[in-house]
Design goal:
- It is built from three helices and four strands.
- The protein is of the alpha+beta class and 94 residues long.
- The protein has a four-stranded antiparallel sheet.
Length: 94
Amino acid sequence: MNLFQLNQSEFGWWVEIKTTVPRCTYYFGPFDSEKEAQLSRSGYVEDLYQEGGRDIIALVKQCQPEILTIFQDEAEAILPKLFEYKIKQESEIN
């Protein structure tokens, strides 16, 4: 077993769902087992579909998400501003 496998086994099981309408990534969990996450996946997909989510892709994976709902359009708008701010801070320090 390599170091990556060892560290990954410490993570819980999560359902990761991506939609194109709206452009979002959602994380549901953690679950104690892959099977438990698999069994819950369809319920989350159905809920998102009922709420207007379209082009839904759902995966079960071991991870530790820091943010449970990521709005892609907002992230794309905010990230360049954060990057500019970080560069400005670094240039003021130097």
